[in-house]
Amino acid sequence: MNTGPRRPRPQVGTNSSRLESVDQPGAGPKSRGFALRADSAVRQIAFDLPASQAVFRRYGETDRPRAKFGHLEPLERFARRHGVLLGALLEELSAATGVPIDPKTDQE
Question: Closest by alpha carbon to 45, among 104, 87, 97, 83?
């Protein structure tokens, strides 16, 4: 039995403008400074930006029963595996979702 002093539980979200802005209704990826990157995971993009799923399906990503949509692989690997130019994939995803491409991303 532990008879030592109890530590107070941290208050999640208090005094944190970042958490509050993320939790605000309508605070989607565009309002949080989200940008598409070559190392972004296909599954995460498909989850955060449902409009991207049509683009991934067009290039061969399939719906799998009892599994989340999209593989856990970066965009650059997805593009290579499906024979798509990374820059073209990023442009298409950006157009479909309205989310910009990270300017630091190498699109070759």
Answer: 97
Determine the length of the chain. Answer: 108
Q: Give the span between the Cα atoms of 95 and 4, in whole angstroms.
A: 58
As assigned by CATH, the class of the 35-97 domain is: mainly alpha
The pTM (predicted TM-score) of the whole model is 0.66
Q: How far is CA 73 from CA 61, 80, 82, 99, in A?
A: 12, 11, 12, 20
pLDDT digits (tens, 9 = 90+) for 80-108: 999 999 999 999 999 999 999 998 876 66
Report which of 77, 35, 44 is spatially closest to residue 59, judged by C-alpha positions.
77
